[in-house]
Amino acid sequence: SHQDVPVLLHCLCEQVAATLGGDARDVAGVSGDAARAASAEAGGEAIIGSESELDLLNKFLDGAHEQLLLGDLPGQGFHESSAPALSPPDVGHAEVAFAQSGPMRDGTLDGLEDGSLVLPYLDRASCLHAGDTLPGAGSMVDEVQRLLSHVRFPGIRRNGFPQVAPKTAAERSAMRNRFYSFMPGYPIVEVERLRILHEFENLLESAQPERSWNLRDRVFHERIPSSLLVQVLLDAIKQEYLLDTKYDERHDCLLVALHCRALPGRALWHTWRGDLLAESREEALSSTAPLCPEPTFNDWWQMICKKTMGDTDKHVEDTFCPGVGGPDAGAPSLPDVDDKCKTEPPSKILRLDARQMGYCNILENTLLPADGSIVFSTSLKRGLSETFPKPGTPVPCTAEGLPLGAEGEVSSVEFTAPPQNELKSSRAFKEGVSFGIFTDDAWAQRVTELRKARQARDAQRAEAEAAAAAAAAAREEAEAMRRAQGLPPAEDGEDDGAAEDPGPTGPPPEPVPSSTTERRLEDLRFGHFWSAFADGARCTVRMHHERLWYEEGSTLYDEAAARPGTNFTYAPASGFLVQVFSDGVVHQTWPPQVRSAAVTMQRASSSSVPAPGGPGDVEVARTVTPLGVVTRELLSGRHEIYHPDGTRVFRNPPLTELQSRQERVRSRGASVEADFLQDLLAAYTKLQTWQSSGKPPPQHVKAEGLPGHWVVTRPDGRVFGRAPAPPKLELKLRRETEEGEGEAGGGDEEETATVADGEVAEQEGQRDPAQALKELLEGRWVDNGAVIEYEIDPISVSVHVDPHTGQQVATSGDGLMIVEDAEVSSWVAVLADGTRISSKAQSQGAEEDRRIDIEHGQLASITCLLKGDNGSLRADIDIKCGDGAELQVTPQRLASATEFCPADPKGGEGRFSSNAAVLLRTRDGAAVLSKGAGEVRLATRSDAAGPTGELRMGAYEVQLDGDRLCMQDADGNHIEVSGDQTVSCKAVEAAAQGRFCPPPRCKEPGRAYGRPDAISLSPPPEAPPPRLLVVYGDGEAEELLPAANARQILELAKQDPNTFLTEGEPMGSPMDRCKCHTIYRTACPDPPAPPTTSFVLPPTVAGFRGAAPSRSPQRSFTELRQLVEYPTIDEQERHAFLAACARFDAREEAHCAEHAAYGEGLRAGAVGSSVSRKASVLQEAAPAEGGA
Fold it and tell me: DSSP code of 389?
């Protein structure tokens, strides 16, 4: 009787939703027979479940009634800690929750196929994996949720809360109501929001005492359901913020602030120490804890266990330091152990040594440039390599020779034990983009080999020089003896027996750079740049050193003549890899999971014998040249090449290549693909029996493709086979050299000559294999005898002209269709796998100016723009990915040491592309520009300019040829990150004052250390905006968003064609001054399809129903996100609120004093009477004067 109408309607909606989902268990309202049948069928479980649900409903209604009477805020739990956590009623939440956790059918969510499924935007696990299943038909979403259920973080499952709420709901309501009278006329909701903001300001000021905070711009709030709080917090900590929390008893909530400090000098250091390096509780109160000398149980076990150790234990023994207690440390005699300990080795855990696995230490350096980015440098240290300084170790001293302390002061020498293992990592964050650089290990290995080869040549040269010097000394000694004997000097060529053979002269001298543009290869340092975007996509750029830009065997190169290009890689979240090489070629790779699924599906739907190019032989990669030539690489190693004019070429792999490929795939763990290759290898071997028979291969075998032979098919159906000629038989001919007779070393010499084309060698009964293969294939020599070409039966080609459009349509027996339109000079080739290659003239009379489009339903769409210019050809490539990212490729070559010019894809040697430039633009506005020779620039949404490709100053610059990433912000601070993960920052203010010293030594864990040379500097005017979350006791939460970030979210929603935005919707009481912004976005769990151009088949081919869709319909769902906008807070309102808080605090203090004074007189009187009674008792107990 005490429930209101909205609560009852809410419960009714939940019950109806559960009934529609098949989860209704309330059998009390059905007929008796039906109830008995349900009870008999379910074994009584239905009635038990209904009773538990009724009890839960009663508790929910009681809590709602308490909330209504006491005025508890939405989002706060109204139950005690022992009661189940239930959320208050929220209109529309039942429908969203039911859509999120709807019934499953065959491992997929209901509504995913027809697009009726609604998922919250914050539920990233469901949005990414909706409908995905694991092997065994397990739901991917359920497994992710199960893993997330084990995450521990402040705010999750009341972590960080008091075990029992210090105040009840009634007491919290009374506490809040006492403040409302100090701000009359203000809505209660806005007053409580001001209180929350004020508590956050106090929390941030305590965490960052160097600045004051004003959070009145946090007018946008986003509600976070308790089931999604883990995902939101995990996403927040990706930025590696500092964490501070505070419990607010007014709302039984936990304030979570994720922030980053901006100290003077824009640099911060802090450390964390674990296990043996952690300070004890007593030492933490006084000073920092020194290095813990107490060994662990594993250390004692290693010392007392006298057993024969393996290689691992031998390594541990070798790393024991003197004085620690190792076997040879001179320690006192150890107690004897039993034979079992001597013979049986301990487990792996017992064999761990703290000097190898303990003494963990983390040192992190944070830099905050003025552009809003954050640079982190982390050093992870583990183990100890020394426990005391080695004798003779230099100690840093001042000019007076005194020991130098941590910040320049004189102090005692303190030894810091070096770690056994250290791992450094540096990365930067800016507007949702993380990026960094590391050293290219492949090139570093190449440099090591070059350096070793040079050192070997230097050693040989030194030996040769030493031998020559010894020979010269011997000759001088012989001459001296001749002079002593009175003999004349020896003539040239006279052999007196004293002079010896000078021996080898050694390698020639090493070339030395003769100009400023010449560089040695071993002096080069190449880096590898990486970046990760907010949508999960990644981009990497490295030097394309696999393609030689210098003469083979040379150790020098001239930058004015050639420079190394770059290899640009973009990996969308779907896994379809896109690579751009230095020659402008685009390479696309299929994800392994997509390949394996395609192999399984094709083999299940076909019973034919495995063959190259047949069912199961799926495409693994494809390459597109600047001229629009497409090369498909299949799983078997078969290559298929398609030209824009309809010419196609394919090559089947030889048996040895197929076998090595199968072993390589098996070693990677791709069992599905390896099994297919194994079956293909067995069937492929049986088909090649003609080779052992010595008879010409049949025509159908030629048409299918001989192993290692190329098969060329013309657009008119003619087919040719081309095979490389085998090595010709070498004939050893002896002849007498006509020149050089009578010279030293002259005489007969042996030469090697090859048989002329078409001749047969009959020497020693051997026959030329090239000629034998030519006769076997009935072919002819081409390409100056290097290739054998033979004819194959043509394939059938059907050509007809559509009477409606005048287009010519040609279909061939191998599944290729070509549609040509002579009026507009265009043709479209449709391959058997659905790939469409379109070629169209861009202008009349200019046949070279063409646009070539290569499109596929899943791979990125590629457009090649060809333009003739004074006899040369220029090519530009545009790539559009399914996630909205675009790549612009400009093939270019080196014109001078610092400038490039467009390359000619049809030009001769020296005119091809060697330093292709690539510009990547993501859907979020970030951009990566590779200029072609190692210069890379990264720009985020605020840095990128327009579609011209130029980027504003202030962006991060990367020098791959130099292995460093650097930037200079608007204040002039210079930051540089090296490939070895070291970070340096030159603060312009500190440099102007002439102060600089090494980074501080972080001796105290958990303390923030700034730049020692920036003590007198003022902190930066702004710090990175923190993330503020309020987590209530029932698990519900909300995030307070900055106004700029929220408006950016709404602006991006307006620009997205797949998004519907309901903006500025008014809300009901008590939030009638607030507005609600709802974003509905149509999303797809499948990999997004790239954009394609429209193509209409001629009516005679398409039929009266029109052309079939080019791709299968994709699954979709609706992504829901809501933002609540509160009224803005001006400075006058903020000052009025702060004044009200001061009056309220003073009133509360006075009120507490009044309460403390109540009954003070009674207590004083009680104390006085007690004292008088005690005195009288003592007086009575005293003996009388003069008594016995």
Answer: P
